[in-house]
Amino acid sequence: MKDMDSRILTKKDIGLDNLNFLYYYILGFRGYDDQKELNLDDAINEVVDVKTYIASFDNWYEEFLPESEADDEGLFENPKTIAGKLTDEIGFAIEFHLSETTFYLNSKYIGNLGGHFEAWFLTLKELIAFDKYEMLFLLLLPMTGIEESEREFAESLVSEKLKSISMFSKQSDYIAKFIVNGLIVDKPFYTNQDIGIVNDTNHSVRNITKYPRYKDDVIELNKALETFVSPTI
């Protein structure tokens, strides 16, 4: 992760009233409408009249992610970043590039939304622990893995968050369903005695069988997350 400076975003930049950011961010999730066979962005645009809420999204997007400053791979040398130290155990950072959004916990890579998608796959319990910090539930949602047995509960949690966003509030249940579709993991989480929580789903940074290069980071972050989550249980 690169050094961060004036590109750090503030609460105002990512708050519930910054509809440009929230539209851009949520449409980047890997959700889908399984009935109409639509990706999440198309499904949302079918039911939300975007221009009644944000009149100049293209201008905002160009300013937020200026193409002229990106390299040939769509990466910025000095990306806009959301970051914070939450407790002694956990800090986070999210970098915004033209080609991907990259996520870190304790300065360790946990995944990206982009052409080469990977995710740590936070458990739902871990995501809920982050919910006591403003906006982090939504910000870390795309790095979360939902087991099929958790689907209904997860949809209700996501819908409640969307109700706080004016442009999504009327369709919150509909949109939540298709966001969660994209978060369902096909393998359950389980605990490895030497490593902690792991997950064997493809693209999971916690899949140390397929991605052994992440093993040491997984061990370290599992210990930090266990301490972070335990007070909320």
Structure write-up:
By secondary structure, this protein is of the alpha+beta class. 33% of the residues lie in helices and 17% in strands. The strands form 3 sheets. It has a 5-stranded antiparallel beta sheet, with no helix packed on it. The chain has a two-stranded antiparallel sheet with strand order 1-2. Strand 3 (80-85) and strand 4 (91-96) form a beta hairpin. It is globular.
In short:
With 233 residues, this protein is of the alpha+beta class.
**Structural class given helices, strands, pairing?**
alpha+beta
* First-to-last CA distance: 31 Å
The share of residues in extended strands comes to 15-25%
Rg, Cα atoms, Å: 17 Å
Mean pLDDT, to the nearest integer, reads: 92
| Most strands sheet | 5 strands, antiparallel
- What are the secondary-structure elements, in order, as H or E? HHEEHHEEEEEHHHHEEH
Molecular shape: globular
Number of strands: 9
- Spatial ordering of strands, largest sheet: 3-4-5-6-7
Helix content: 25-40%
Uncertain spans: none
Number of helices: 9
List the helices and strands and how they pair.
Layout: H1 11-14, H2 19-26, E1 32-33, E2 38-39, H3 40-47, H4 57-64, E3 80-85, E4 91-96, E5 100-105, E6 108-114, E7 118-119, H5 124-130, H6 136-140, H7 151-162, H8 172-181, E8 189-192, E9 196-199, H9 215-229
Antiparallel strand pairs: 1-2, 3-4, 4-5, 5-6, 6-7, 8-9
Helix pairs in contact: 7-8
Task: Considering the chains and any ligands shown, give keywords for the structure.
alpha+beta; two-stranded antiparallel sheet; 9 strands; 9 helices; single chain; globular; five-stranded antiparallel β-sheet; 233 residues
